[in-house]
Amino acid sequence: MKKIVMVLIMGLLTACGSEKTLDEKLAEVDQIFTAYDSAALPGAAVMIIENGEVILQKGYGMAHFATNSPVTAKSNFRLASATKQFTAMSILQLVEKGELSLDTSLTDIFETFPDYGKTITIEHLLQHTSGIADYGPMGSMDVVRQFKDKDVLDFTIGLESADFPVGEKHEYSNTAYVVLTQVLEKITSQTFRDYLKGNIFDPVGMENTLAFENGINEVSNRVYGYSIEEEGILETDQNKWSALLGDGGIYSNLEDLYKWDQVLYTDKLLGQKYMDMSFTNHKINDGSLMDYGYGWRIETYKGMDILYHTGSSIGFRNILYRIPSKNFSAVILTNRDAGGEFSTLVSVHKVVDVFF
Fold first, then answer.
1. CATH number of 22-355
2. Is 224 strand, coil or helix?
3. What count of Cα atoms within 13 Å lies in the side-chain half-sphere of residue 240?
4. pLDDT tens sequence across 23-64
5. Any idea of the CA torsion for 68, 75, 83, 113, to the nearest 10 degrees?
6. How many CB atoms lie within 10 A of CB 167?
7. Taking CA 223 as the corner, what is the angle to CA 208 and CA 89, rounded to the nearest 5 degrees?
8. pTM: predicted TM-score of the whole model, two decimal places
9. pLDDT tens-digit profile of 158-168?
10. Which of 242, 250, 247 is nearest to 174 (CA)?
């Protein structure tokens, strides 16, 4: 019996002794991003937040080769689709104020919208269940300038029908989130850019975050997007879709995103009712879960409930990843056109594996 007790004690001591220190964990995280840690390559900005404290905030590689600027915690990346959580927040603020309803339809807001908009509500747009057509076919239009959010609204107004009945399925829609900016502008008589600044960025103290509109405002410490090709590193920062705001036009940095992460634990921007709805895994008509809330993707990883959103656009791959039950978050921002939409999800899983 004594031998068994001693074996158990030794096992416990060994287990305790094998617990990695924070420095060891951070060294492992550093190894995950070695491919970005070069002054000859486009880079990444990585942040880990635990119990409200930033335990890692680090830049790797280059932000802009033309100015020889390295990535730092102040470097502002195009968030791409991670923008959608801010778009959703702005719309839900209007709902909470009674200026809009989740049941408001597109024809309630836009008098010229075709009949198919009668069944498409604000909630359907937030959930990606509206059936509204992808704006991709606009690319064939004879337009030399970049497309704006109003162009996408005009495109949807010119269509005769949706792609599928509302709520029939969850089909990720950039169009939906671009149209939401036009809903906001119609309701508030403000530009989306100014609304975000006055109602989200300024109250949170996100001084360097903005919805970028060329010629109207300017991104400080701007990171440029690149592609690594056989012939070398090419700047691929912009295309005809890069001026769209609602689905991907916000620029931000690690320092500001820390403030954003922390305010989501409070009711400073939005009451608990709508915060909870944002983070709830909603269902399509047949009762199937869609793994999406309002502007947030949802997953279970290692038994933990996760809120996250990736962002992928020409020259950028990003992710904001939150584990509220553990008060733990990770942010990865990269400025290279490499890997698919969920390539950063693979990286952030490796980070989580180090800690849990």
1. 3.40.710.10
2. coil
3. 14
4. 999 999 999 999 999 999 999 999 999 999 999 999 999 999
5. -60
6. 21
7. 45
8. 0.94
9. 999 999 999 99
10. 247
